[in-house]
Structure formats: structure tokens, C-alpha cells
Amino acid sequence: MAFEGLTERLQNAIGKLRRKGKISESDVKEVMREIRLALLEADVNFGVVKDFVKTVRTRAVGSEVLESLTPAQQIVKIVNEELVKVMGQESVPLNKSPKIPTVIMMVGLQGAGKTTTASKLALKLKNEKHARPLMIAADVYRPAAIDQLKTLGQENDLPVFDMGTDVSPVKIVEEGLKVAQENKNDYVFIDTAGRLQIDEKLMQELTDIQKLATPDEVLLTVDSMTGQNATEVAEGFNEQLNITGVILTKLDGDTRGGAALSIRAVTGKPIKFIGQGEKMDDLDVFYPDRMASRILGMGDMMTLIEKA
Amino acid sequence: KKSRQGFGAKINALLANFRHVDEDFFDDLEETLIESDVGFETAVKISDELQDEVKLRNAKSKSDVSDAIVEKLVDLYEKEGQEEDNTLHFAKNGPTVFLFVGVNGVGKTTTIGKLAHKYQQEGKKVLLAACDTFRAGAIEQLDEWAQRVDVDIVKKPAQSDPAAVVFDAVKRAQTEDYDVLLVDTAGRLQNKVNLMNELAKIKRVIKREIPDSPQEVLLALDATTGQNALTQAKQFKDVTEVSGIVLTKLDGTARGGIVLAIRNELHLPVKLVGLGEQMDDLRDFDAEKFVYGLFKDLVAQTAK
Ligand SMILES: Nc1nc2c(ncn2[C@@H]2O[C@H](COP(=O)(O)OP(=O)(O)OP(=O)(O)O)[C@@H](O)[C@H]2O)c(=O)[nH]1
Ligand SMILES: Nc1nc2c(ncn2[C@@H]2O[C@H](COP(=O)(O)OP(=O)(O)OP(=O)(O)O)[C@@H](O)[C@H]2O)c(=O)[nH]1
Ligand SMILES: [Mg+2]
Ligand SMILES: [Mg+2]
What we know:
The complex is a heterodimer of chains A (308) and B (304).
Chain A: H1 6-20, H2 25-41, H3 46-60, H4 63-66, H5 71-87, E1 102-107, H6 114-129, E2 133-138, H7 145-156, E3 160-161, H8 169-183, E4 187-192, H9 200-213, E5 217-223, H10 230-241, E6 245-249, H11 259-267, E7 271-275, E8 283-285, H12 288-296, H13 301-307
Parallel strand pairs in A: 1-4, 1-5, 2-3, 2-4, 5-6, 6-7
Antiparallel strand pairs in A: 7-8
Helix pairs in contact in A: 1-2, 2-3, 3-5, 5-12, 5-13, 6-7, 8-9, 10-11
Chain B: H1 2-16, H2 23-35, H3 40-56, H4 62-81, E1 96-101, H5 108-121, E2 126-130, H6 138-149, E3 152-154, H7 162-175, E4 180-184, H8 193-209, E5 216-222, H9 228-240, E6 244-248, H10 258-266, E7 270-274, E8 282-284, H11 287-303
Helix pairs in contact in B: 1-4, 1-11, 2-3, 2-11, 3-4, 5-6, 7-8, 9-10
């Protein structure tokens, strides 16, 4: 695998620096090359990588590094700091409305994990906060999308509101919100159909739902295996819906998850949760520093810093 | 060859838009390729080979340079594609079995629906096997496809053993003379050993009942996927001897360039392409169109 030499490569480049003690701008350049490569192989978007490397280089050629006795160590530290900075310093909790219900709208491309994640989140709130969530089945397009949500609802004792597939999603949401008011549900999850960010008609539908429901959260669900296209997708959804947060799914796989960096960089919106499996309890809070290490392919960035 | 000229002409037209072919050109080319998800190494390799070719021929004028590039591109593309067999294979007699595999949410079930529709339209007798007994609503989803395109389905209650479902389906396909059996499986990430073993078992059951089958093991890959698709292809190939790829969601803005790296490294051909969620949104893979699509952005960039 191309990835395997990554840590080694960085270590080599850094090792050279270490022996030299003082380093020059061209030394920095070489290390930057390796970092650029590492990020690209992790699927961080090309443009994002460019900007990122530029920032790191600017800091690295600053006198503090060039004159330091441990320049390599300094560079890795800068990379780590900048990565965590882009990724958000700490985890951001779910928004909460001052009066019930808090409305959470799930959006994203087809198959990203919206329906599964909505159920996971609803269950988490129920278990941890004694919340009484209602899930609204607003995907009338995908075959058996409603069955999927209802099954997850039944299995986890979470109520699901649906009106079948012959009613418009906007209408379903409207009626669903009424039911939530009546039943005093404190959280409402709107499960929308997957769609492409370039599908004008379906994006308009989301805008209509958003206008009607004025959600406290519009969560863009993104498959962590997404490649270079992550920026375009995230920008598309963000420009049209002004999303409030991101959920990265399928991180139980072996992807580096560079999409996380790309999405944060272009939207500035926090990644709030990560999906780590198909089961209902496979949902975790997002930690920027852990994601940073994962993207660079270093189990423990600090170890490398110490070695450097 | 007609098609080769078509491809060459398209690339030529594309290159005609460049004011100069210089260092910047190759940087742009590399960038375009990387942004199509072909991967860093493949991008650099292609770009380097093209650069060498231009030097080798000592091409100076714009047309010399673009000729060199076109020929080299076509070569590169044809070289890797030589033994590529991107047709689907059918049994000489008895039912043909296609097994669908892939990670979660890539489009396995939808592709089966589309393919069932195609074969049904061609007058074939089609049977579906609902072996995703795990994911909520998966059986209902395939069932709805079966009804929509008017084909038969074998299913058992949720959580049943998928190997038992496939066994029943193969038996029924044999005894009731179905032409095609399409087997849906649950999505699974390639690093989940238990789930990969389960898949191997499904395949073994099929093979035990009909020794020449499955005629195709099709790996569904989402065009939006980045470098991880290579690992997916490797692992699924190891476990189930994948015979071809279905590249889904190419109607989106992702180019699916990773299949180039997959072809180079694993020699797995793309056989089908998904272009939407409807039953007609399935195409045979057109390699030239695909390769051309990878470079198309370059035109847009330089036209500015
Ligand atoms: N391994 C893994 N699988 C996941 C995760 N989240 C979702 N999935 C799986 O991904 C597939 C798609 O999930 P869905 O919840 O149906 O995705 P969706 O975005 O609602 O899909 P559409 O409604 O078709 O757009 C299913 O097989 C899920 O079980 C995760 O964190 N890890
Ligand atoms: N735009 C687009 N969407 C597609 C395409 N193929 C499938 N989809 C959508 O992608 C989502 C997931 O498709 P499925 O067929 O359920 O995927 P799967 O691989 O069977 O998923 P699991 O069984 O959960 O692993 C659905 O919303 C499909 O409608 C395609 O070619 N283009
Ligand atoms: Mg869904
Ligand atoms: Mg499926």
C-alpha cells in the first residue's frame, strides 16, 4: 500500500534535518513535499492541501524554527497545530432550541448514512438525556426508505412519523411538526432523501423544508471515504442550506478520512459526530486531534514529535 | 479503429485549447488528475510519461506537442486495457448467477434493480435473492425493486442466515428455469473479517450448487470514493474473486478516477456505470468516454 511508507517517509525527511541541526528553506521544502503527499494520499482536497502547506511553510521558515535546535520537531508540531486548528479546537455539542422541539434536519448525498445516523442520534439523546425524540420520514423517493426508518424506530423504541410516499416531503414535515407539538416531543429528526448537491429541484425541496421547519441543526452527513470531491459537495450543500454541522460516517473502515479536513476548510462548520459502525451505539463525539493523527497516518503524532 | 480515432480527436480538441504546453501544463494536468481521484502516484506517472514523450520527440510546435500527448495517452490507455474484458458473462446453459458485493451504501441494491429491469426487458426470466438480511429495510428495498421492474424474488425474514437465502434462491433458479439470478448482499467494510468470511461463504454456497457460477462477482464502487476504493477492490477481490466493477453515482460531480489506479494495479475492469437512481440509469462502461471525462476539466480551466 502506498500509505505504509508514510510515517517512515516523514521520519526520513525529518531525520535528515535532525542531523543537520540548523535548516534552510530548501530543507523545509522537502519536508513540506512529504506532508503534501501524505495529505493527498489521505484524500485531502488538492486545493486545501495547497493552502495548508503554504500556511505551515510560512510558519516553518519563520525564525523560531530555523534557529531552533530541534527544527524537525518544530515542523511536525506546527503541522499538528495547524491541522487541529483547521479541524476545530474542540468538539462542538448539538445545538439546542430554547423551546421544544429542537429540530434536526439530516442532509447529504445518497447512501452517506443519514437515516442510520438520525436513528443513532435520536437513541443517544433518549438514552443519555431522557429525550423524547420524533423521527419524520421525509424520504419518499428511495425504495423502502420509510420501512428502513420505521424498522430502526421499532427496534429502538423511537416513534416515527410518516405519511407514505404519495405526499410531498414538505407536507410530511409540516404535519410531522404538528404531531411533535401535540406530543411535546423535545427533539425532531427530519430524515431527507439523499441527493446530489447539483440537483436543483431536490435542493430546492430541502430549502423549502428548511424554511418551513426552521431547524436548529442542518447536519450534512458525509461518507468518510469521500475523495477529492468532498469540497464540492460540502460547498454545494453549505451554500444552499447554510449547514450547521457535519457528521462523518463509516470511520470504522480503514480510510484516512482526509475529507474531514477538506470539509472543515471549505465550510468552517464543525464536525459534530462520527459514525463508527452500523449498530445503533456506533456513534461518537468528534475529536479534532484524533482526526488529525488519523489523516496523517500517525497513530500518535506526539511520539513522532518526541522522536524527531 | 474508429473508436480510437474518436478518443484521439476529442483529446486533440481538448489540447488545442492550450496556449502553451509547458511546465504549467503538466502541473495543471497533474492537478486535474489528482482532483479526479486517480491518486497521486498515478497522476505523477501519467504526467511524467507524457512529459518524457514530448521531450523524446523534441516536440517544439504546439501541434507536435499535442500530437505526442494524444498518442501517448491513447497508448497508455490501451496498454492497460489490453486484456480488459468488460463484458458480462453468461452461463452456457442453466441459470446465470451474478453476486453483488461492496461496502455500505455504494449502490448494490439499486444496481440490481436496474440490471433486473434491463434483463426483464430483454425477455429474460430474472430472479433476485435478498441476502442482505441485516440492514434495516434492506429486504423491503429489494422487494420494492422486484415489484417495480416485475421480477421474482427469494427472501426470508430479517436476520436470517444469508447463506440459507442464497441456497434457496439457487435451487429455485435451477428448478424453475430462471435465466438470471442476481444476488444482493449486505454492505460491509473490507476490514471486517467476520463479514468478509460471511461473503466468502455465500459465494461457496453458490459454487457448490452450480460449479461454474457465479459467472460474475461485481464490486460496486461509489465514484465519490477516494483512495480507499483501491483497498476495497483489493480486499473484495481476495475474498470473492471479483470479476468486474460497477462504478455508481457517476451522475454526481466526482469523476471516479480511482478506477484507473485499480485497473493498473489489480486489472479489474469496470463493467457497468450507474448514472442515477432510476431503473434506466445504468450503462455499459465506455472507457474512452470515461478517460476523456477525466481531462475535461482542463479545457474549462484553460478556456478561462
Ligand atoms: N460501517 C458503517 N456503516 C454505516 C455507518 N453509517 C451508516 N452505515 C451504513 O451505510 C449504508 C447507508 O446508510 P443509510 O443510513 O441508509 O444512508 P442514507 O444517507 O440514509 O442513504 P439514502 O437515504 O439512500 O441517501 C447502510 O448500509 C448503513 O448501515 C457507519 O458509521 N459505519
Ligand atoms: N445519484 C445516484 N444515486 C445512486 C446511484 N446508485 C444508487 N444510488 C443511490 O444510493 C443510495 C444507496 O443505494 P443502495 O442501492 O441502497 O446501496 P447499497 O450498496 O445496496 O447499500 P447497503 O445495502 O446499505 O450497503 C440510494 O439512495 C440509491 O438511490 C447512482 O448511480 N446515482
Ligand atoms: Mg436514507
Ligand atoms: Mg443494499
